[in-house]
Design goal:
alpha+beta, Chemotaxis protein chec, single chain
């Protein structure tokens, strides 16, 4: 599968704006900023004629903001379940945009969301197809598509 960072940026910006009403901008540069400890990661696998995984990694603070918007909570603190559900849905939408580009018959796994006190997991560098960091109102998140 060939996905450019431009494609990844277009999909991501469209999903975040249409779903949450949030403008996100790609963070330029060859390296990616470090994600803080307390990172929340959504993971969806693309399975079938092509095998791959979509990761959405962000701070717990941003994941809570996504949940508040998605569930209309205003300034209320979202429950851990709402945070997981919101990040799972955002990751699932990202994977859903990549799936048709995989070619052949593929389906998506159920989203899996994990929290890590040590910072976000890293994909194997040689398996990364596309990886981009974004800024959302001062918070960083990273979307990665990798094969295998």
């Amino acid at each position: 599968m060939t996905i450019t960072n431009h494609d990844l940026c277009q999909f991501t910006r469209a999903i975040w704006y249409s779903t949450l009403g949030l403008e996100v901008r790609p963070i330029p540069g060859p390296g990616l900023p470090e994600l803080p400890a307390g990172t929340v990661t959504g993971r969806v696998q693309i399975i079938g004629a092509w095998l791959g995984t979509v990761l959405l990694e962000c701070s717990e603070k941003l994941a809570k903001k996504v949940a508040r918007i998605m569930f209309g909570l205003d300034s209320q603190e979202p429950t851990p379940e709402e945070v997981r559900d919101a990040l799972a849905e955002m990751t699932n939408m990202a994977a859903g945009n990549f799936k048709p580009l995989a070619g052949g018959h593929c389906h998506l796994s159920l989203p899996h969301v994990t929290a890590s006190e040590m910072g976000a997991p890293q994909a194997t560098p040689n398996a990364v197809i596309s990886r981009q960091a974004f800024d959302c109102q001062g918070e960083v998140f990273v979307v990665t598509l990798f094969e295998g």
